[in-house]
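Revision sheet: structure tokens.
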Amino acid sequence: MRLSGWRSKAPGRDGINQKVLDAVGEILGSLGAEADPHCWVTWGDETGSRWTLLAPCPAGLAAVNVRAGGIEGSRASGRLIRWSKVQLGELAAEAERGHRLVMFQIEGQPIRGTDQDADGVAAFASLVLAGVEGRPLPDLDLAVRRPASPAVPGPKGTAKPTTGQGARPASRPAQAGKPEPTH
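Predicted:
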């Protein structure tokens, strides 16, 4: 999700207002990221006045800490973590009874998403993993989402074999109690 999309998910109204977004956009630009990047936001308190943004960019991971409001006004500070220094946990996924859970840890921040939010966690993880591996960052705006189907094994565009090793010939049905011959 882009930074502008996180505005609707903020726990408080003032935590991610336009003035704060403008300041964060300037910091992101200074670090080499887009002003409205695909990113992950972690809310730090119940009012949403403190939050952290993690945005992958070609040079590394931009990390911006924001404190909105307060006595002195809003404040944002950021740093660029080179890809070779980014600390990652594993990407894990679970599915049970039609529900999904995807988990990922980056720079000590646990990121979790269930059901529809699981796609967002997986997409963010794909950006980070591409950066760490030195691959070009995928354009999530162009990504085509296709529903996962347990009936379609293997990568898109490959067909299930009908004959040969690992498949039963179409002309000879399996007989109960007899093992299949191996080739």
